[in-house]
Structure formats: structure tokens, C-alpha cells
Amino acid sequence: MSHKHNCPCTEACPLQRAMKMIGGKWKLVILCSLGVDGPVRYNDLKRKIGGISNTMLAKSLQELEADGLVHRSEYLEVPIRVEYEATDKAKELGPILIPLAQWAVKTDTADAK
Length: 113
Hints:
The structure is a single chain. By secondary structure, this protein is of the alpha+beta class. The chain has a single domain (3-112), classed as Winged helix-like DNA-binding domain superfamily/Winged helix DNA-binding domain (Arc Repressor Mutant, subunit A, Orthogonal Bundle). Helices cover 57% and strands 12% of the residues. The radius of gyration is 17 Å and the shape is globular.
């Protein structure tokens, strides 16, 4: 990896690309939910997350699908059944996010003292 890719403030920064893919209020929540439960129908996902609007859930799922982090399966039934699941690419985030969550807990604990 060249030096220019190590700096988070360069135009070609891989961290900026990663944050574009998973950043925002809802994307990590969606990915965590899909990573835990496997394939989930839209309404079940919306209920599980709570507080997210239909517009934001649909937009976030479309963006996650475009970035290869969510797979959408459509079953031609009546009514049409659609399921979403985390891709292998998304599942690779698990080992990265666990230390981040642990850091957040540690930071919260330190702030409470």
C-alpha cells in the first residue's frame, strides 16, 4: 500500500470509500441485523430496526446492494416475496466491527468515571 493511501485525508483514501459504503445512521444497523438473522423480509427488517422510515430503509438497502454488501432475492409468488441478506463481503466486516464496538464500550466506561 502506498503512503498516499495511508492518509485519511487524501482524495483516494480507502477509509473514505469504506465510510461511504457503511456510513450514516442506518447502514451498520441494517448490516448487523442481516448478519445475525440471515435472510430477512423487508417488513421484518423494518420492525426489527424500529424508527427507520420506509424511504430510508429502501434507500439504504439499494445503496448497500449497489456496493455489494446486501443481496436481494425476489421470489415470484403472490404476493411477491423479497428477502435481503448480508453478502460474504459484508460478513467480512464482523471481525473489524467487534473491536470498534469494544472501543466504544471502553470509551463510554471511561467517560462515566
